[in-house]
Fold these 3 entries.
Entry 1:
Amino acid sequence: MIVYATKLTIRKAAIGLAVLGGILWGITALAPRAAQAVAAQIDSQSISQKLKDNDARVSYLQEFGWMVEETPLVEMEVQIPKEFDGAYQQYNEIQLRQGLDLTKYRGKRAMLYTYTVLDYPTQEEGVTASLVLYKNRVIAADISAANAEGFTHGLTERPSAAATAAEPSGEQNPQAPAEQKTAQDTTE
C-alpha cells in the first residue's frame, strides 16, 4: 500500500475548489440539455407509433385531441421524393417540430390516410388530418385546410379558436406535399 501525504496550502485548496466548481458547473450546464434530449426522444417515440388498422389510426388522432370521421377520405400510396423541393422542406420543418423527420424516408413509398376533422377550433369546413405511414409507422402527420386561406400545421399543435380566427396557424400551404398526386390511388 502506498500512502501519499501532503501539506494543505492555500494554493492547493484554491485549485481544488476551482476543479470542484468546474465539475459542478459542468453537471448543472449539461444536465438540462441531456434531460431535453431524453424528453425529445420520448416525444418522438410517442408520436411515431405503429398503427396496424383504421381503428388504431382513428384512436391515434383522438389521442392528440382530434375528432375525425372514422372512414378515411383518402387512402393511397405516395412516393416520398429523393430530393425535397421548397414545399417538402417546409412540410418537413413542421414534422421536425413535432419529433418526426421525413429525410430518413427519401425515395420510399408510404401510405397516406386523410380523415375529415370534425372539431377544428374555428368550426371551419374542409379541415383534414393526414397520416403518412411507412411499414405501419407514423412518419408524418398534419392538420390542413385546402381552401383559399389554406394552412398546414402539425398534429400536435391545436390552435385556439381566437388565435385561429385572427390569423391562420402554421405554414401557408394550400396543399400539403403528402396530398399531391404523386402516386397511384389505392382507395378501397
Note: Residues 33-45, 164-175, 178-188 have pLDDT under 50 and may be disordered.
Entry 2:
Amino acid sequence: MDGKTRGGKRLARKETRPLPMGWAVVALVAVALIFTGWLFAEGRNEAQKAAQGGLQDGDGVQVISWTPEGFGALCVPTEPPEEGREAAAPWSEDDLVLLAQTIYAEAAICRTTRERAAVVWCVLNRLDTGIWGGTIREVVTYRNQFAWTEDRPVVPEYVELAEDVLLRWMAEKMGQKDVGRVLPAEYLYFEGDGRENHFRIAYRDTGAEWSWTLPDPYAEG
C-alpha cells in the first residue's frame, strides 16, 4: 500500500512537473526562425518594389528611389565618366601674361587682330618643335628672339586674344579641323618693318613670306 501511495504520488508529481529546459530552448529557436523568415520575405518584397521604381509610404508617396543595380550601387562612390571630364588647360595665367606682353611688344602697331594672333601662333609653332624650349615661358624668353620684357604692359584685350589662340591650338591637338589658324605650323620666324610683321619659314629672308591666305576668324561679318 505504501508502494502504491508512493507510486501514486510519483505519478501525480510527473503530471504537474514543468517542461525540461531543453524543450524550452527548442521552442524559442523555432519562434526565432519563423520570425527571421518573415523578416526576410518582407525585405525581399520591399527590394522588388524598389527595383520597380521606388518605395512608397502609406499615402503612396515615394520616399526613396533605387537604381536597378540595388542598394550596393548606391553605397559605392563612382567617378564621373572620362568623356564627361574637362581636360585641364596646359597653360597658366603666367603664360597668358607672357603672351599678352609679347603681343604688345611685337604687334601693337599692327592694324588687325589676325596679325596680332599670328605672333601667338608663331610662339606655339616654336613650342611644338621643341627647339626653343618646352614651355611658353622658355620660348618667349629665349635669348635674342622675341621682344618680350617684364615691364611690358599687360593689355586685357591681348590676354583675351592669347587665350583664344591657345584654345584653338588645343582644339587642333585634340583632332579638330579648321580651328581658325591664321599662320601655318611651318612658319617659325618673322620680322617687322614698323608697320606690319612678315612671317617666314626660314631664318634668312628669302623673299617668300606668308601671304595671309587662310580665312580670318576675327573678321567682322
Note: The helical segments are 2-16, 21-51, 71-75, 93-107, 113-129, 136-140, 156-173.
Entry 3:
Amino acid sequence: MDARVKGQISERKAILKFIEKGFNVYEPVSDSDEIDFVVEKNNNYFRIQTKTAYYSKDQKVWRCVVLGSGHREYAKDAFDYFAIIVPESDDLYIIPKDKVTMKNISILRDREFHAADKWKNTRTLHVKDYLNNFNLS
C-alpha cells in the first residue's frame, strides 16, 4: 500500500478516536503539510499532525519518523501534538510536540525497555504515558 494512503488511513483513525472522546474536529480545506486537523473541546483548540508507526524487525519495536515531507523538520510552532497510530493495534499515542526532540520515536508495545536497550534510551521517547492521552492542555 502506498505511504500516502497509509497516512490517510491513520489520519481517519485518529479523527474517529478524537470524535469518540467528545472532541469537535476541523479539517483544513486545502492540503497542509503542517496540520492534519484541529480538535476542540471546551473551547480549547489544538493542532494535530498525524503519523503512522511501522514495525522494525531488526530492533523489534514500532518506529515513527516525525519529519515532514522531504525529511524536513517541522517549524517549531507548526502544531501542538503528534497523533501516532500503530496500524496493527490501532493504538493512538498523543504526544505534545515539545516533548519530541528526536527525528524518530520508538514504541515498545509488548515489553519494557531492558538492559539490552540501554543504548537506545538516550534517543528514545518512552511513550507509554501518551497512549490515548486525550487530556490535552
Note: The two ends are 35 Å apart (CA to CA).
